[in-house]
Write a structure and sequence with these properties.
This protein has 281 residues and is of the alpha+beta class. It has ten helices and ten strands. It folds into two domains: 173 residues, Sandwich (Jelly Rolls), CATH 2.60.120; 101 residues, Arc Repressor Mutant, subunit A (Orthogonal Bundle), CATH 1.10.10.
């Protein structure tokens, strides 16, 4: 079940979207690669999720929060058969530029340049975060929060607490713990997905054999290198289509090299052709 609402502070501000998700996943499921045109903050309210970003894999736990820029593709791999719960906050990239007050620290957290995506709270801070999250989740589930200044203040209060943990190091920054060849492969794909990429190229870049790389990637990511690369390209192609680029332009900019192949793969993954997807835009 997903509960959503949007908040618009004034005619000069874009909307912030709040999304609370409760969903029963099966082991080895994944959430699909995601990329947005906004900042995304995800606060995890359950265990059993492994988060994959452009060049790292993070084993998360309850109370962790993650930050994603618009350029960061990511997905969650499910590790256990249980209900998974998380709260997402989507913030337009220029949102805090409209404030006269100093919001530099919030911007620094949202952009997190050269910093990991995941912050792990200390026990005391985690309890404080839960206290602020509980009424927000309840209001979302009751559909009783649209267009209220009280709800906006609660969301801003959560963002400020997260910013405080981030900037004052009251939360521990969690780095990835995966085989080097997997990390190198993720990094190579994120920087070169528009080129022709072979397993041989990736194995040479990672200083290992094709067999070893294929096994390590599948064991850690839950999918093959080819499946990940294809999903990455298709997900990025959605972004370019929404920006108004032609199907032919998108095909070559995403590394497919052949339009008929691109259209066929796009439809297999999304259920519609690139032309139809662009019209929904």
């Amino acid at each position: 079940m997903t509960y959503k609402t949007k908040i618009k502070l004034s005619e000069y501000h874009k909307e912030i979207e709040i999304e609370y998700v409760e969903h029963q996943f099966s082991p080895t499921d994944n959430t699909g690669l995601n990329i947005y045109d906004q900042y995304k903050i995800s606060i995890l309210l359950s265990d059993g999720l492994m988060v994959v970003t452009d060049d790292s894999v993070i084993r998360t736990e309850t109370g962790d929060f993650l930050i994603f820029r618009p350029d960061e593709q990511h997905f969650g791999r499910i590790l256990g058969a249980e209900e998974h719960r998380f709260l997402n906050i989507f913030i337009p990239t220029d949102y805090f530029e409209k404030f006269y007050l100093n919001t530099d620290k919030i911007q620094s957290m949202l952009t997190h340049i050269n910093e990991p995506n995941c912050i792990r709270c200390h026990t005391e801070t985690k309890e404080q975060l839960y206290q602020k999250l509980t009424p927000v989740v309840n209001l979302l589930k009751e559909s009783d929060c649209n267009d209220t200044i009280e709800f906006y203040i609660k969301i801003l209060d959560i963002i400020l607490l997260l910013e405080d943990m981030y900037s004052n190091n009251t939360g521990r920054i969690i780095k990835s713990n995966i085989p080097d060849c997997v990390s190198k492969t993720l990094n190579y794909i994120s920087n070169n997905f528009y080129k022709k990429i072979s397993l041989k190229t990736l194995a040479e870049y990672s200083f290992c054999s094709i067999t070893y790389l294929s096994k390590m990637f599948k064991d850690n990511m839950g999918c093959t290198v080819y499946e990940y690369l294809t999903d990455y390209r298709i997900n990025y192609s959605k972004k370019l289509l929404k920006e108004g680029k032609s199907v032919t332009e998108v095909c070559y900019e995403c590394g497919f090299g052949d339009c008929s192949h691109f259209i066929r793969v796009f439809k297999e993954i999304t259920g519609m052709t690139p032309h139809c997807y662009k019209k929904t835009g």
